[in-house]
Automatic annotation (TrEMBL):
Its main location: nucleus. It is found in: Nucleus, Nucleolus. Keywords: Nucleus, Repeat, rRNA processing, WD repeat. WD repeats lie at residues 118-159, 244-285. InterPro entries: U3_snoRNA-assocProt_15_C (IPR018983), WD40/YVTN_repeat-like_dom_sf (IPR015943), WD40_repeat_CS (IPR019775), WD40_repeat_dom_sf (IPR036322), WD40_rpt (IPR001680). This is U3 small nucleolar RNA-associated protein 15 homolog. Residues 344-490 form the U3 small nucleolar RNA-associated protein 15 C-terminal domain. SMART domains: WD40 (SM00320). CDD domains: WD40.
Amino acid sequence: MATYKPLVVQAIPKLGERITQDTLYWRGYKTPVQIKEFGAVNKIDFSPVPPYNYAVTASSRIHIYGRYSQEPIKTFSRFKDAAYCATYRDDGNLLVAGTEEGSIHLFDISGRAPLRQFDGHTKPVHVVGFLSDKYRIFSGGDDYSSNLWDIPSATEIVSYSEHTDYVRCGCASKVNADVFITGSYDHTVKLFDARMKSSVMTIEHGQPVESVLLFPSGGLLVSAGGRYVKVWDVLKGGQLLVSLKNHHKTVTCLCLSSSGQRLLSGSLDRHVKIYSTTSYKVVHSFNYATSILSLALSPEDETIVVGMTNGVINVKHRKPEERKEKSQKKRQPAYRTYVKGRTYMPKQEDFCVGKPAKRVLRKYDKLLKSFQSSKALDAVLEPPIRLYTPEVTVAVMQELHRRGTLRSALAGRDEKQINLLLTFVARRVIEPRFTPVLVIVADMITDIYQPVVGQSAIVDRQFLRLQEAIGKEIDYQEELLEVLGMMDTLFAAFTKKRAADLERNKSNGLTETIETNMSN
């Protein structure tokens, strides 16, 4: 008696995800570590000097975390109310933050109490930062003003009141120590020069501006607001270079990679998009649990830290590079490994005893083996198989048809089972890989259950869906045939024209040759 051969399911190649160098690079992070803060995380900033600690501003506290620590190594908590936008100075020694009551606090990283307090804003200060000369601070508040402060004397240098709504973001130029930029909910981005009494450039973003970023060269400016990320050429007077609309909700934060070749944007749609700064196309994307408010990337892209609305910080560390194997000699395997190993070739005098591999049959294979056609069909109509591996369901139907038992397997079913069968056939019959088999199945179901049409509203509805699906597919096929006919006509006309041109060129060449011979 021949042994039963398991059912062979035809493998259909799938279009896999395109793997690029960016995909491999940005996937090279470990499983994220999550840290719970006291409130929504409005700012994350990495220290520019080793060991690259990062400051997290949430609620009324600023926590300093080591790059690999899950507990804060230092806390600044002397705020009456919420703190905002804690930012490091370029040397990593000072930290500045805005407050809900309108003051600005300057901290020494080695201390706890504020070194300086700057008072001048009348409403909350949401954006603060250092100018590149390290001795001045810029700020923007909900009182619509943008101010410049002198650190040694703790005095206000100049105040600009050009915005007409809350100032919620800003950045300073690394090239020019007098230039800083602010973005406002009045839809504008303004560029200020500390030597001038008013702004030197105004850019209309078109949406409330949530974040701005200046490239290290100082020539390109990126603004984020609404669903848009826009790139502007500052050297050409604020000319718009590209407008990106890859997020589904408001973009809240921007960040540049250490090389400056990748731009990162975080959004309330729970995604971080990574763009190439040459083509401005999305090269990778991260998905998070909740809406994103802040984002920071450590030097050399070793760590990505994301702050979310629920107060959770998501920290991803890059996996260490695999070290090359040491050149030491490996321990040689024992003699018995050579004798009993899989690669051992038996000699002529050896007596070989084979052990047949035990095959584990799937449920539908066991039922097919015992000729239980109806139960085998029921087994492959279970949700896990029907929904995720429909090719298995169709393969069993094809095998039953080959055996001549498909009709009996489809017959004798109740309303619920008929509804399930018709739903599967109506959904999958239009797929080219399943069409030949499912057309036969649909024909048999219609033939078997035609006498009961009109007795069940559910079954009638499924028959109508099947008819509609097949009708649409026929219409599509007819349209495709029309398009093919048009293309054949065009190709034929093009071929005739090309042949006529070649004949003309040949005849012209022959005429010229005859004339040349006659003249000689």
